[in-house]
Write a structure and sequence with these properties.
The complex is a heterodimer of chains A (102) and B (211).
Chain A: H1 3-32, H2 38-60, H3 67-83, H4 88-96
Chain B: H1 3-22, H2 30-59, H3 71-95, H4 99-129, H5 143-174, H6 180-205
Helix pairs in contact in B: 2-5, 2-6, 3-4, 3-6, 4-5, 5-6
Amino acid sequence: MTADTHKSSGMTKDVGVYICLLVLAGIQFVIAYQDISAKQMFERMLIVAIIEAGLALLFFMHLADNRGLRWFVIIFTVAVLFGLQYGWTDSYRLTNGVPWAQ
Amino acid sequence: MSQADLSIHGQVSRTQATEVMTAPTFSVPAKKMAMWLFIIADTATFAGCLVAYGFIRNASPNWPRPFHGVANVALMTFILLTSSLTMLLAVRAAQMGDKAKAFRWTAITAVAGILFAALHIREWMQRVGEGMTLFHNPWGTSLFGSLFYSVTGLHLLHVTGGVIALIAVGIRYQGGRYNADDLEITGLYWHFVDLVWMFVVPLVYLLNLSH
């Protein structure tokens, strides 16, 4: 593959991912106008955002090309995100009181 | 085995040992690895802010939904996503050795960042005009204003930093002091700023739309 062909296929992939991201961002805006509960809306939007972030990480930030770094980033980030979930029960206690208040 | 063979083998093994010792982590150059570590740390910062926002939103019974339209935030999203594409084009041009083109795309990315920041500040001014400040909110809990300005402000700070970095690195790249790798590393940061916005928009704006 020549340098020009490689550059051309790379740019095509970049533009393709960009269009996918625009479409996914559009889907988030469509979800915002759906007649669903806030919880359902949050879940759907979060799924779309995670897909968007995955595409950006893999193709814009080139994690798809480096397996070792990809696993390092994923494991560390997921561990941090799980660690941050400790306070949800307390936030429910603030609105609902019992049984968590005891 | 002759003395000459031993010498050659000794030389090879020393070279191999040096290569092993100096091989960068994950085959990533040190500067790029430093940027990845910064991005991971910054992910924790933004995740902390957004999760705290979620805790407080969940725990506030009179949480307001003050946003009536999405035109401004949609335009901001479009500009930021497009700036990520222009950044990729800048890096690709730099890797092909086309300095002028790389600088031009970097400058376009920086202009897109400035435009995004201007739209963001204009939106803040509108909110302040409606009476929403850091410690006051006419529609419900005052915590909404605090969190809105904190989360979007942190992102705006990153965009501003990114624009400054793009201008500085772009000029130095044009002047021959930096190379394509430096531009790529700055691009990594810019894509990260874009990535964070993908979570800020639904959580801070779209979930607070009035229906």
